[in-house]
Amino acid sequence: MINKNNLISKNTKLALTLCSLIGTSMLSLSIGQAKASDVIGIADQHLQVSYWQQQATPKQLLSAAQINQFNQSMLANNPHVVDVFSVPDQLNAEQLKNYVKHVSSVPKWDRFYVDGRKLGAKDYAHYLKNINLDAIKASNPVRWALVVKRTSLRTFPTMDKVLNSGMDADLDRFQETGVFPVDALAVVHESADGQWYLVQSYNYLAWVQKKDIALGEKQEVLDYALQTQSAAPLVITGDKVFTSYVPEHADISEVQLDMGVKLPLVKHKDTLTQVYGQNPYASHVVILPTKNEQGELAFKHALIAYNQDTRIGYLPFTEQNLINQGFKFLGERYGWGHSYNSRDCTGFVGEIYKTFGLLMPRNSAQQGKGVYGENINFDKNTSKEEKIAAIQQLKIGDLIYIPGHVMMYLGEDNGKPYVIHDVKGLGYINGDNQLYKGTLNGVSVTPLLDLMLSENRSYVDRIYNMKRIR
């Protein structure tokens, strides 16, 4: 049966993505010039944003006030989305140990290095020593920081890459997620080697390399964060945008800013006729956090050319813009936990929704089981026919969850539902009635009903929730 009650999410690790098990067929596709492909159900038009825009409406789905209300409710009620400035200024020993152990613990399952060697007690002893539990005191001050360079959040304070047995080498099990320039962080602990901080971002707790963030006073970090939350920040609406090249200032030169990043704007009347030797009249002037020579937080002006994909203020939350934002990632390589300078299925969804000002939990289970939005939950007794009937009622931008994966609904073609998602593998039943297994390994448009996880189990079989944010 269909249970339309919201499900309460639990505190979970990044789910082992089932994105790696999908399928394909020899069909013609590409934009401009047709070429052979094994992706099932895809023709040229399916990879063009204009094709799907025909079904979309420009109607605003939520107003700015409603989006603010949504975010406030998320911060108040969802344990996976937090106000970093609500972290106490001091943590007692028990609180801090709980923070550390929440993210850094020996996994229940075997892990292997890339060369195939299994991690043993000695390896974990090294990582556990570096989480520095011995340094925890009765009272531990919390510090504050801003990210100055896109970087990774890790399970342990190490860049060592570890895998599951038999797993794809792309899926580093110590990789949790990414953080981006201007993200505010609560810094709660330091590693024994002095190279890492344990930090709380708005939707994740994990270890970050010290070199990629700048510590500052709480008030100056808060003031900057409030500027980015003003009514009209500069919002990065492209997949990746770069600040202008500045020969004498490497820290603000060609800095990568990913979709959804927000920056405070400087009014042109407040700048001179040149910034770092360039006239700023054809650029946005923004305030960027940097590290000074002492390694402390400092702020500098930076230029972002008008030709970059940005917008003053959030995008209107419409079906048309949902499609546009999704297609800006089309073809980007899959990146587990924001690795490979890209993103995974939930990062893809989260960055799209950030351009409208909407905050989302990080992991797929946290999103799919979260008590927010309008949900249609399915249990083990729900028939496939009931699920397909519910799929036929989906609207553009709705999110479809199977364990470890999320897809965004695009619309229909010849009565068949299509999705866009950041996905690793590919599987479907071919013309010989055999399971075909291939790879996508990137942001892809696919039909939904054809996708198979195994010879006898489809994606539809595994759908447990469909979420609408309206």
Return Rg in Å. 23 Å
Q: What is the overall pLDDT average?
A: 92
Q: How many E strands? A: 28
Basic shape: globular
Number of helices: 10
Helix/strand class:
alpha+beta
**Residue windows where pLDDT falls under 50 for at least 5 positions:** 1-34
Q: What share of residues are in beta strands?
A: 25-35%
Amino- and carboxy-terminal Cα gap: 24 Å
Helical percentage: 10-25%
Write out the strand line-up for the largest beta sheet, numbering strands in chain order. 1-23-28-24-25-26-27
Task: Please give the largest β-sheet.
Answer: 7 strands, antiparallel
Describe the fold and architecture.
With 470 residues, the protein is α+β, with helices and mostly antiparallel strands. It is 19% helix and 29% strand. It has helices spanning 49-53, 64-77, 93-103, 121-130, 218-228, 319-327, 345-354, 364-368, 384-391, 459-462, and strands spanning 2-3, 27-29, 35-37, 90-92, 111-113, 139-141, 143-147, 151-154, 162-164, 175-179, 184-190, 196-200, 205-209, 213-216, 234-236, 240-242, 256-258, 262-263, 265-266, 283-291, 297-305, 310-312, 374-378, 399-402, 405-413, 416-429, 435-447, 465-468. The strands form nine sheets. A seven-stranded antiparallel beta sheet has the order 1-23-28-24-25-26-27. It has a five-stranded antiparallel beta sheet with strand order 13-12-11-7-14. A three-stranded antiparallel beta sheet has the order 18-15-22, with no helix packed on it. It is globular, with a radius of gyration of 23 Å. The chain starts with a strand and ends with a strand. The model is unreliable at 1-34 (pLDDT under 50).
